[in-house]
């Protein structure tokens, strides 16, 4: 029983908990060679972690689709103030 | 972006102050960074100072690295396999609804925005710049003054939290 468990664990190279912590670095292409090898070996044998990685990719896609925090409407008075400042700054040169 | 640090009304002033600083200081721009990261660097400083003064945000530096207190990507009881033991999935992390379902898009956007708002300030800064504004890792490191490693850790924890919120929503 324990032999079988140890064999499966060894086949997965690292635990799921460890694999999860490597996923962003994997997506950022920032893993060391050794960690990349361990993660790939784990993902080959672990459907749940492969699914999680897909979900993380989907999350990023959803974030991209959420868009920037908001653009600002331009307030005419503020713009005039800035233009004055800009002219003043140019005058100094 | 200023709204990451201060309320809507103040954000307007932060942007104004930023441009004023940019105009006054353009002579000091040395071209070592791009103009974009230089201007945003000023914005971040102005906004952080303002947010601090208003007691709305805790400054980056005083949070330590902002990297403490991590409980893992998923709740510990999800990683409790009956045979393999702790650290291995008990059940697969499946989602009941399709996250790409367009009929959910308005609700889903609200869920994501709420999840971002609930992040720690350093995580929120990094996730917003990388994934909402579409900045590169190098730009984020430069503007926020953090290392590559910190940037990736904050990005990881932030994205993982957003994924979790999305999962709770899709499985609700």
Describe the structure.
The complex is a heterodimer of chains A (93) and B (172). By secondary structure, chain A is mainly α. Helices cover 77% and strands 0% of the residues of chain A. Chain A has five helices and no strands. The longest helix of chain A is centred in the middle third of the chain and has 20 residues, at 47-66. Chain A is elongated, with a radius of gyration of 26 Å. The mean pLDDT of chain A is 86. A two-stranded antiparallel sheet of chain B has the order 1-2. Chain B has 172 residues and is mainly alpha-helical. The longest helix of chain B has 24 residues, at 148-171. Chain B is elongated, with a radius of gyration of 19 Å. In chain B, a hairpin with a 3-residue loop joins strand 1 and strand 2. The two termini of chain B are 31 Å apart. Chain B has six helices and two strands. The interface between A and B is large, with 44 and 52 residues.
Helical content of chain A (DSSP H or I, runs of 4+): over 70%
The overall pLDDT average of chain B reads 85
Total count of strands of chain B: 2
Coarse morphology of chain A: elongated
Give the key terms.
heterodimer, A: 93 residues, mainly alpha, elongated, B: 172 residues, two-stranded antiparallel sheet, 2 strands
Offer a quick outline of the entry.
The complex is a heterodimer of chains A (93) and B (172). Chain A has 93 residues and is mostly helical.
